[in-house]
Amino acid sequence: MEAALNQALLSGFGSKPSLSSTRSCILLHKHHTWVSFRAWSPLPCLKGSSKTVWLRCVNGEERAQAAVLDLEGSEKGKLRRKKLVVFVSGGGSNFRAIHEGCVQGSVHGDIVALVTNKSGCGGAEYARGSNIPVILFPRTKEEPEGLSPADLVAALRELEVDFVLLAGYLKLIPIELIQAYPRSILNIHPSLLPAFGGKGYYGMNVHKAVIASGARYSGPTVHFVDEHYDTGRILAQRVVPVSVTDNAEELAARVLHEEHQLYVEVTNALCEERIIWREDGVPLIQSRENPKKFS
Ligand SMILES: Nc1nc2c(c(=O)[nH]1)N[C@@H](CN(C=O)c1ccc(C(=O)N[C@@H](CCC(=O)O)C(=O)O)cc1)CN2
Ligand SMILES: NCC(=O)N[C@@H]1O[C@H](COP(=O)([O-])[O-])[C@@H](O)[C@H]1O
Predict the structure, then answer these.
(1) Any atom of ligand 1 within 6 Å of the Cβ of 172
(2) pTM for the whole structure
(3) Prediction ipTM score
(4) Which of 52, 72, 152, 219 could be bridged to 147 by S-S, CB 3.0 to 4.6 A?
């Protein structure tokens, strides 16, 4: 394999890049000739171009997929638009912000369904008005039409959902869904996790707790979802000041404004396949403008 890679490299890039580690993979495609390798690492800029060539494993197998990540240009056009499902329990302003992003082009994806435990909530009303299918989950006394976890997973598979976004959903996501969508479920929480998270910390309860604590800063957190409330890997945060005169409603409004922007940006990064996982398991977002930059 090494010889083939060297040959592909030399023919493709004019000089053999230095490998960052024995685990680093190698190469890339010149004339769509793919080679297999294990991990990925940044490769030096292409000869005479400002682009950086990145390689990464696909689905953890010994297959390599590489692309010249100038998402401004041809690469984004080649990336498949991702299929999204959003879970809400209330007004759905984050859901609306993401939907608007999909329609206006700031999110490289499409919302294929809304999931809610409250069929009459504002998010469900907006979905119906936008011709987005509404799925009830879970099955409860109040919502006897709701799906079981297994039926929900089957419905999302049928819709070919790529990513699941929680946005003000107030029920625990079951292990069946967590296992069906590894590293593919995000949640937005209205505090700087790990502070002010967990069971009981939702909506205004969060902002009241922040103010009562005397914290001088707060802000939204977007994190991957695991089987517990708010303990999944943190992906992105924004900071807002907490005024000593703030009430919970004033703080909530300030945080919510940042949520809308943050969730749209993070969702687009997900759709553009710019989330990468550090060796210690921390997820990072690769910059659109400069693929060498991560946050
Ligand atoms: N498996 C997971 N499920 C969910 C997560 C998660 O991280 N892992 N995040 C929540 C959203 N959330 C915070 O971001 C959250 C929502 C609700 C609660 C909570 O205490 N709920 C109450 C019920 C409230 C109600 O029904 O009105 C409870 O469970 O007693 C905490 C955190 C979404 N799901
Ligand atoms: N712990 C979960 C939680 O509190 N989520 C919060 O519920 C609100 C939903 O607003 P929206 O329905 O207008 O998007 C948002 O502030 C979100 O962070």
Answers:
(1) yes
(2) 0.81
(3) 0.99
(4) 152
